[in-house]
UniProtKB/TrEMBL annotation:
GO terms for cellular component: MIS12/MIND type complex; nucleus. It is found in: Chromosome, Centromere, Kinetochore; Nucleus. InterPro entries: PMF1/Nnf1. GO terms for biological process: cell division; chromosome segregation. Keywords: Cell cycle, Cell division, Centromere, Chromosome, Coiled coil, Kinetochore, Mitosis, Nucleus. It comes from the Eukaryota. Its main location: nucleus. Residues 113-147 form a coiled coil. This is Polyamine-modulated factor 1/Kinetochore protein NNF1.
Length: 177
């Protein structure tokens, strides 16, 4: 029975923590009448006092509504039941000699080493592919340069043939005259 009350206390602790947090949020120095009066200097003292009372009522009502909503959310989501199950699992694992929550540093080191080796291999493969692509692009550039030189040589040959044809025509037309 002690375990049940301890487990139930987790839900109780959750609610207490929420209420404390809510109280600290809704309790500010502005609740003091002097601070409140500074915010509304154009009102009379009686009006400021009435506004302050209204403000306190609103904050109190808001506080109550938020607590009710929190209770409702806890009930809807079954927070208490879930906290009980978590506590039970934690207790079972602490009693189970086969369950080890301790991490073996050697295993972690081995896994990390294997991951790094795989990463290095992957990067090496990427580098090899990039070098191969660079070599192919370089070969293509050289091929294009040689084709350009071949074309410029052909252009010179065509110009020479044109010149010879023009010279031949000129000689033949002079001979016919």
């Amino acid at each position: 029975m002690e375990k049940r009350s301890e487990i139930s206390s987790r839900k109780s602790n959750l609610k207490k923590a929420f209420k404390l947090a809510l109280r600290s949020l809704l309790t500010t120095p502005s609740l003091e009448p002097q601070e409140f009066s500074k915010a509304f200097p154009e009102f009379t003292s009686a009006e400021q006092a009435r506004l302050h009372q209204l403000f306190i009522q609103v904050i109190t009502s808001l506080h109550g509504n938020i607590e009710v909503d929190f209770e409702s959310v806890c009930d809807e989501t079954q927070a208490g039941t879930i906290l009980d199950m978590v506590e039970q699992i934690v207790e079972e694992q602490s009693l189970d000699p086969l369950f080890s929550d301790k991490t073996n540093v050697g295993d972690v080191g081995h896994s990390l080493s294997a991951m790094k080796k795989n990463e290095i291999q992957h990067l090496t493969n990427l580098l090899e592919k990039a070098e191969e692509e660079k070599r192919i692009i370089g070969a293509r550039i050289e091929l294009l340069k040689s084709e350009k030189q071949d074309l410029s040589g052909s252009t010179d040959s065509i110009e020479k043939v044109k010149t010879q044809i023009l010279n031949y025509k000129a000689l033949n037309s002079n001979a016919l005259q």
